[in-house]
Amino acid sequence: MAKGYWIARVDVHDLEGYKGYVEAAASAFREHGARFLVRGGPFVELEGAARSRNVVIEFDSVEAARACYDSDQYQKAKAIRQRCAEAEMVIVEGYDG
Questions:
Q1: SS in 3 state form for 22-47?
Q2: Residue 93: count of CB within 10 angstroms of its CB
Q3: What pLDDT shows up at residue 52?
Q4: Which positions ≥6 away from 86 have C-beta within 8 Å?
Q5: Considering the entire predicted model, what is its pTM?
Q6: What is the chain's Cα-based Rg?
Q7: What's the topology of domain 4-44+53-93?
Q8: In the chain, what are the domain boundaries?
Q9: pLDDT confidence of 80, banded at 50, 70, 90?
């Protein structure tokens, strides 16, 4: 079964508030077996508009990635994130070839 990935591009405008999101989301990530592959860090902008923060999170499957996003724990964290940051997020299926 192919893995599932969250890919998020984020601009944080309230760093203190964002810390609350990170804390609130941690339990959802633990419960759903999330593994951070990219969590911020330097990047090279090549094409299109970039955001200041990039995140890639691996899950055992697309279903696990979606279950994490839909969980009550993450929805509470998401409400915090939406107050302190702007983001685009997608779930993608990994290549299993």
A1: HHHHHHHHHHCCCEEEEECCCCCCCC
A2: 13
A3: 96
A4: 10, 11, 13, 51
A5: 0.94
A6: 13
A7: Alpha-Beta Plaits (3.30.70)
A8: 4-44+53-93
A9: very high
